[in-house]
Amino acid sequence: xxxxxxxxxxxxxxxxxxxxxxxxxxxxxxxxxxxxxxxxxxxxxxxxxxxxxxxxxxxxxxxxxxxxxxxxxxxxxxxxxxxxxxxxxxxxxxxxxxxxxxxxxxxxxxxxxxxxxxxxxxxxxxxxxxxxxxxxxxxxxxxxxxxxxxxxxxxxxxxxxxxxxxxxxxxxxxxxxxxxxxxxxxxxxxxxxxxxxxxxxxxxxxxxxxxxxxxxxxxxxxxxxxxxxxxxxxxxxxxxxxxxxxxxxxxxxxxxxxxxxxxxxxxxxxxxxxxxxxxxxxxxxxxxxxxxxxxxxxxxxxxxxxxxxxxxxxxxxxxxxxxxxxxxxxxxxx
Amino acid sequence: xxxxxxxxxxxxxxxxxxxxxxxxxxxxxxxxxxxxxxxxxxxxxxxxxxxxxxxxxxxxxxxxxxxxxxxxxxxxxxxxxxxxxxxxxxxxxxxxxxxxxxxxxxxxxxxxxxxxxxxxxxxxxxxxxxxxxxxxxxxxxxxxxxxxxxxxxxxxxxxxxxxxxxxxxxxxxxxxxxxxxxxxxxxxxxxxxxxxxxxxxxxxxxxxxxxxxxxxxxxxxxxxxxxxxxxxxxxxxxxxxxxxxxxxxxxxxxxxxxxxxxxxxxxxxxxxxxxxxxxxxxxxxxxxxxxxxxxxxxxxxxxxxxxxxxxxxxxxxxxxxxxxxxxxxxxxxxxxxxxxxxxxxxxxxxxxxxxxxxxxxxxxxxxxxxxxxxxxxx
Amino acid sequence: xxxxxxxxxxxxxxxxxxxxxxxxxxxxxxxxxxxxxxxxxxxxxxxxxxxxxxxxxxxxxxxxxxxxxxxxxxxxxxxxxxxxxxxxxxxxxxxxxxxxxxxxxxxxxxxxxxxxxxxxxxxxxxxxxxxxxxxxxxxxxxxxxxxxxxxxxxxxxxxxxxxxxxxxxxxxxxxxxxxxxxxxxxxxxxxxxxxxxxxxxxxxxxxxxxxxxxxxxxxxxxxxxxxxxxxxxxxxxxxxxxxxxxxxxxxxxxxxxxxxxxxxxxxxxxxxxxxxxxxxxxxxxxxxxxxxxxxxxxxxxxxxxxxxxxxxxxxx
Lengths: 334, 378, 316
Known about the structure:
CATH architecture of the largest domain in chain B: 3-Layer(aba) Sandwich
Strand order of the largest sheet of chain B: 7-6-8-9-10-14-15
Mean pLDDT of chain B: 90
Low-confidence stretches of chain B: 11-21
Oligomer: heterotrimer
Shape of chain B: globular
Strand content of chain B: 15-25%
Structural class of chain B: alpha/beta
């Protein structure tokens, strides 16, 4: 924890720290600000959905790609975030920003509670515990109709306002989502470059050496899992007003598996991986609809072939190509 | 950047056809073709395809051929919303589907904002009670069907206690929530209340539970396949009380799958290819010939949805999207005017339907209609 | 809106031996037998799962679909090739073992196994989508009847109805598993396979043809899945979506029993099947699925290697 506190270093070296990832994020956001113009509401909606899923995948990428923990509950955390925001905004009339923060904080706390006993036993048992957790969350969402609306779901979830501006329109909400996504992505970018994050990378490269240097492995992995879960909560808080309706089905166990697929296919452990992964998971199936009834088969076959060709995911492949081009230099994108 | 290229490509792939032929009218069917609703959705889709083929063969609607596109929702509300939005963006004349009420709830505001009629296959009572004037059913709502079943159990079966078996999704839960107060009103005791999972395969434990409850009748409210599995499990466990249900218990599909375990099942049927309405039976034959299996009630819903569009358009004599919804609202469609509607159908102001329905029983592997029930407001 | 609880509290908290019914014991036995029959199927799926995991560190998330597909292939070969049922069963099963025993290992596992557990696990997940959607689009979205090769009668014994079909499933599955156990411990080939499973490096030094042994486990896995498919489809009906539940339960059974023991998977399958049946009976039908999962978490926290597993020697 002490190294986390010291992570708030002054922004003295900020200019030096700006790198390819940072530039890509900012440039990408600038492009995405304008891309939906003239695209129609459907295209805009799919782009927004892509970004919302990217946030959840970013969180899982921290858990899996950096801390090496296999979580099968990312969609469940997203569901908890979505229901928290939906209930707080519709039933209690709380504003979206407070609900958003509470969704993230709630998932963070749950992540700690869930991760603590599981990680005490053995790192990869977290997968089994989260599998159970995921299904239990789904059962509660479905069965406790008095609270969650059960199988009938919750409807008419309001969209947030931004300094008095409404975001009811597809484009306005798209830009709102974009800003939130950028903030969360940059926060993660900063986190990974902080001393805390560097300890983290050391942990990933060589756990035994990191432990001998005084990195408390369990605390670090637990925090990574909790932060990853909080990101899922944030994603859920955006998902609910995006769709304006939620029921338990998008947060079932299979959705958690699907998020895992996005992390790995995009490139786990790479900061831009989640965006590529979510692009594969959200936009590719929509785009493949022109193939007709077999579009899901085509989609899944592409994923299988992709993984056979590059098990490190798309970004992994790009990096390999990049390194091969400028062989002696160090990799720019990490 | 890459994205906009993708989007352009996708748009090109989809819009290539209608530009060439301006004399077509575009209908988009947003439907469950994968995920939990795949079976119901595929039936609905096939029904739609059959109606479109029929109408196009006879010259289309007002001289225009129908161009039908199906978008899969994966039985997921978020995807359904995307697909309905896409359908609206692509200028669909009306939105057909979906069948599950969660996805309906997630997408009906989109068609409402665009003032486009959405003709769905859902039976849960809730979504026509939200004051949305653009939503239309293709079958009776559970709020209309359940009182009839409760009365049947009281009057014909003289049941004083009943075991309720339902599937824990919006369809089953909706039906259960509708029938419990009806049973209470008639003084019928619920001996046991058994929730089952969507897609559940093993019903042995549920059947034993029902058997031990020892009620006078068993109310079974599951989807077709689960109904068949339950009937077989109940027979294996020696449950010998009358099985009472709705369309999903008495359909041809259930009888085919459950074999002789289906014999003796009885109850209320809204849409059925076995009903004593020649138009229904003819639909059943055409469907069987084209798709090589027997349609369930969702096939009929899809078929009627397209004919509701046809009737409304010919009535208003133009292709006006908002006008279609206005024309359908409050209308009564008679088979003499539009044979494709199959049975006289009154569309109420909120999108609910009123029709005659049937009491039926399975005898020797055949559905036999024992009584025809009049419309609620004849 | 009616918000009545699914069941009265008394029914939720009812325990088998406290209940004020005439034949609580008979009732309990009926649930037990039904649970054992389902559990036997989970066991067949879980054993293949653990075998493949032991020899090649492959987590097969398509295991449920492996149980779903053979029945579909059987029906498809009866329908499209016009074969009589007995032939169709043979053709379907052989085709399945070739495709998803041999082919699965060659096409998907071999190129990916070097890159660790996760990419391969994800690939099997995508494979499960291909199998499910393929069965739906290529054959039917509807459930289909599947012929039974077992007696369908019900006998009434001491006041409880026992389905012979259930008894037959338990017997056949147990025979298959005992046969496998005998093969592994009682034959040279089986012992080589077992040695490969325990430590491939040592097995290689001992001159065991490791590659063939690994392939053998994939073939056995496919064979067990096909057996489970043929046994269960007469009751469950053949449908593209049947794998979802079976896959989840096989996974739970494998963890509960212990990932590295055949008898662990057998016990795990039976335990999970029985717990599921009893949960539906005595706890709550709408929270039925929660009970095996809570059991899973408790076992992980108390005995992480599974009820019958050995503590793992190998780092994953």
